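Dear U.,

For the methods section draft, I wanted the exact inputs and outputs in one place so we can describe them consistently. I've listed the two proteins in the order they'll appear in the manuscript figures. Please don't edit the token lines directly; just add comments below if something needs changing.

First protein:
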Amino acid sequence: MRALFLIVLFAGLCYASSDSNQENIETLMDNVLVLRVPHSLSTSVYVPLSCGEAYQNQPVVWKKNGEEIEPALQGNQVKVLVEEMNGGNYTCHLGPDGEYLNHTVILIQLDPDNRTVILEEFPGEGPGHIYCSAPNYNGSFHCTWRRSATRANAAVLLVKAERNSEKMSCELDADGSGILCKDANCPYKEEQHRVSITVYIHSYSRLEAYTRTFYLREIVRPEKLPNLRITDGKVFSWNYPESWEMPCTYFGLQYQVKVVQKGFSCHSKKKIMSETIEKMTYEVNIKPNKYVFCVRAQDKYTNGPYSHWSHCIVDKHTEVC
């Protein structure tokens, strides 16, 4: 009875392979198959491969990651046994030492895909592994991600960007850690649907997919306020960011002004005063003559992300902006 129990337990912990598992195999893109396997289970799945219809009657020989397979795997259509996370690049050749004909990369994705290890979460920017921002409403936005230290060589395989099933034009950053996209919608058009960004990134044979959805208005972050200056020793003024849309009556900004003690940063919670205004000037009327004046901008209609701080350091009769 105990032996029977162990056999049943082992069967429950294993994910046996058969033709019925084909629904767990998906073509992600040309020459790339994704095998979804249950998390925490031992897996062994046969994956069908085809070199191509043009090579049906040719002496096709397969290799894995450039190495010959033992015993030899021959034929235009074959099945390869994929165990655990042991995927790879399967190439087919015309004979054992013949020319390269085609290839298929098999990647493994855990199901559910919620135990991610390739990318790190962004601290302080809300939950998620993808951070997106835009300097205005012209439709261009930039998304970034950070690889974990143990997966520094992970490579981006594919990025999908769309809104309401309409694909967006995107360009991957040179270092593979971000993407610049352009939404063709007019900046004056009311957003009815969210933007969806999905990043497929792999480390060896492990594939992970990360998704971020947002309205453009949620990620618009004005650029740092330029030309911050002081007159009469206490009146501060600044300009609109050059990248911000006009007219200002439609794309309005509001400003958080803050005064902190000299020697503290604008992020300090030890403030002397703080206020939100709509004018681009502010007069400081405080007794201390050593302080830091800080100002940043925010879309006043959406209450989206603030710009980075601009600041001036005041030390009695000396001002540095």
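Second protein (the one for the lower panel):
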Amino acid sequence: MKWLPSDPQLISEGLYSIAVVLSFSRIAYILPANESFGPLQISLGRTVKDIFKFMVIFIMVFLAFMIGMFNLYSYYLGAKQNDAFTTVEESFKTLFWAIFGLSEVKSVIINYGHKFIENIGYILYGVYNVTMVIVLLNMLIAMINSSFQEIEADADVEWKFARAKLWFSYFEEGRTLPVPFNLVPSPKSVLFLLVKIKSIIVTLLRCEKSEVKEDAELNEIGLNKHSNIGSTASPTRYQIMKRLIKRYVIKAQIDKESDEVNEGELKEIKQDISSLRYELLEEKSHSSEDLAELIRNLGEKLSIESKHETSTGHQRKA
């Protein structure tokens, strides 16, 4: 309790607490390897980007109201029900916790009868709450929702690319041991050191035995060899990346072409159905006309036959 606030032990404890939080967040690095948590982790990463974009407008509005409220109440230190807005620190705390509804309305009340200043404080504090809580926070929620829907529409591809990126990080040529154990020389580092010393000795011997022109050629050859030795793992890695990207692009082109073909086929089917419908209607109208004509002819024949039968009957009676 008697230590100074700037004691190294106190500062180290504060930094250690931050390091503990960051160490647990390191687990997010391996989440893309899982099919369930990978898309979720990618969506969280996209939402963090949206939050950083939103922070520009947020900080601008926040600073405007913080400085304005401080200028309004800076002369009333000790003349208010609390110390809100009397200093820059108190102004920051009050406006920050007001976003979460943890500030009180009495923060703008003055013990004296300065009603004009108090009313101005009420207006500014109310406008701040409406702007931050109702407008900007809802805008942030809408941006996060939009990003999440975009990722969900193509979650499988996003997850596979993130998983491939995680795999490639282990294919790269790097340290054998993690920090801080990489300070201890490993067999791999000793081997690389010996190879480097050998190459330097060989180049020195060749320089002594050859001429200037041959030295330049040998040096170029030696540089090419060193570049090839240093990038032994790179061709395989880039070949894998090239094949993955090529496969994805070809699949996307095939899907696009199939979609275009399907749309064209659907249009042709619709046209065929409409033409068939018109043909059926025309055939139906023609058949109905033919049927009406047959019925009319049959009626005429029946009437003629009935007249003929009546006439023959009268002749027989006569």
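Candidate sentences for the figure legend, describing the second protein: Residues 16 and 22 are 10 Å apart (CA to CA). The longest helix spans residues 234-317.

Thanks,
Y.
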